[in-house]
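Quick one, tokens below. Sequence please?
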């Protein structure tokens, strides 16, 4: 028996409304992944983010033998059972370390992933509307080209937003733009005065704000064909009022430590 017309129309309305909400709502980016729920910068963490349709931030450093790995600190001391500088250890040495037990025995034998492994995980995921913030910590002239090459290999370049050294250093932005005209590049604005420069910069596609801008400022960014990524103390903590305001004024993505709570708040509305 066919469904009554009103039921079909109602279902269609729900789908359209849900699609509109998804397009208009800010995308949630989990700081170092679900760092309050699982060991940061691990595949177990990122897998959970993707299962929940959440974006996440990754940190990029290079090993002694030139491999790009996902780890926040310049040493392995805090987040593994080993010691030493990432730049002085070979990939084989780093991936022999336990990167999960420090957080909980349930995550024993998690490893420090390579950027290649993270991009492969993203490529194999069904999560298509997530934003991955790539925090470039490595200070060398090859890292931008290497990241773009790996992203292209896995077909995930359009899901990446480059942050870290990118937001401050024009030479990093130039190398990224040279590596790919499709790379999404950000430049920082700490305040309204700096916002003017970030909007005018031809090298960036996103403005990385570290303050809560006005609705007029967000509108100005969008009028110039750029998008807005917010991070920093105004949203990184459990800042529900600031999250609400950021969504209301049209900010495109929010980086926070409390990504589950933020996602719940956005979806609840």
């Amino acid at each position: 028996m066919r469904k009554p017309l009103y039921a079909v129309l109602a279902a269609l309305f729900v789908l359209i409304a849900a699609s509109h909400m998804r397009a208009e709502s800010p995308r949630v980016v989990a700081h170092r992944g679900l760092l309050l729920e699982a060991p940061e910068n691990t595949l177990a963490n990122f897998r959970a983010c993707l299962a929940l349709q959440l974006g996440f931030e990754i940190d990029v450093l290079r090993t002694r033998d030139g491999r790009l790995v996902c780890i926040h600190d310049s040493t392995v001391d805090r987040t593994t059972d080993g010691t030493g500088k990432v730049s002085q250890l070979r990939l084989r040495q780093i991936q022999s370390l336990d990167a999960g037990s420090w957080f909980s025995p349930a995550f024993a034998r998690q490893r420090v992933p390579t950027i290649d492994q993270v991009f492969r995980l993203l490529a194999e995921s069904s999560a298509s509307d997530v934003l991955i913030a790539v925090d470039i910590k490595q200070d060398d002239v090859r890292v931008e080209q290497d990241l773009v090459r790996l992203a292209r290999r896995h077909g995930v370049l359009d899901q990446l937003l480059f942050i870290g050294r990118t937001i401050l250093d024009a030479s990093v932005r130039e190398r990224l733009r040279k590596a790919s005209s499709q790379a999404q590049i950000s430049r920082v604005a700490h305040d309204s005065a700096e916002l003017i420069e970030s909007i005018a910069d031809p090298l960036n596609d996103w403005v990385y704000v570290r303050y809560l801008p006005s609705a007029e400022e967000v509108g100005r960014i969008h009028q110039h064909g750029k998008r807005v990524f917010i991070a920093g103390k105004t949203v990184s903590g459990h800042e529900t009022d600031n999250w609400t305001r950021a969504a209301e004024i049209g900010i495109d993505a929010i980086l926070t430590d409390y990504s589950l709570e933020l996602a719940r708040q956005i979806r609840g509305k």
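Residues 125 and 156 are 11 Å apart (CA to CA). The chain is about 40% helix and 15% strand.
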